[in-house]
Amino acid sequence: MPAIDSPNFETAREIQKERGTHIPYISKSRLMEYSKNPYHYFLRYIRGLREPENFWMRRGSNIHSVFEDYYHNVREAFEETGDVCDDLTIYLPADYTRWMDYTEPFITNFLMFEARRLQRCRDLDDVSLFPAVGIEAEVWDWNQLIPRMGFADVIVEAASLPDFSADTAGVVVIDFKTGKTPPKKYRNDGIFLELEYYALLFEEEYDVAAVGGYYPMNDDFITAESTEKRRSKVERLCQELEDAGTDVDNYPINPGPLCAWGPNEDQKSSFYHICPCKWATESGPGPTFYSDNKESLESGS
After folding, report:
1. Which residues contact 122 (CB under 8 A, 6 or more apart)?
2. 155 and 33 in contact (C-beta within 8 Å)?
3. Residue 43: pLDDT band by 50, 70, 90 thresholds?
């Protein structure tokens, strides 16, 4: 998981004091929270309210940490032996209690994803393509009034992925998502916007061929070509975050299905009772019942 003790966070806070900005940095999660509901962004990042950890957060954190250790183990084994074992399960953390509850479908599908990558490398007769180029790679863009930052879950050679032609140069930045694969109608303002932010951030330090999101729940790997429209939207949102300041009037409410996806308390946003949003009523959720889509609408990060 992201190294919260990274010295870059302290540097960002020092820059914040020097420049008098209202936030120390912009991240993918901050950008997406603002994009989905500016008022919820205000509550979380300006007022400093924090949502209590829930099942989805714990599951996501645990699975991410297992994947991170797996990639480190693969890299260390390759450096020692010059090869990779076909039985990829040996690279999972030795403490199986960390991942046994997620074997189906998350760990199983992830290992299938990795097995396809390894087979591609063997087909190319170049197993050196298999180990990750970067693991929880940290990138900061300091050339902004408010620095922009991001952590890539993993960066791999594009040629190691069957989704790309074998002669594709450069790397693919991959973000793991532990929710359901989002329906296509939600991707432009969701996963594709996240990937555009990563492309914009990481291309300065890496030869980025593509950015993708992998959903081990469904064994889906999604990539999107960078577009001027999405890139302009990312830049606009970043600029809005710089300009918004601390005035609540600059953070309008944008009601949506994640405000309340069901009538029960555990089916409402943590901010539901302090937000004027009228998405749901006592009789049930808002204009459309989204219970089936709740997980797919979450960031899954």
Report:
1. none
2. no
3. very high
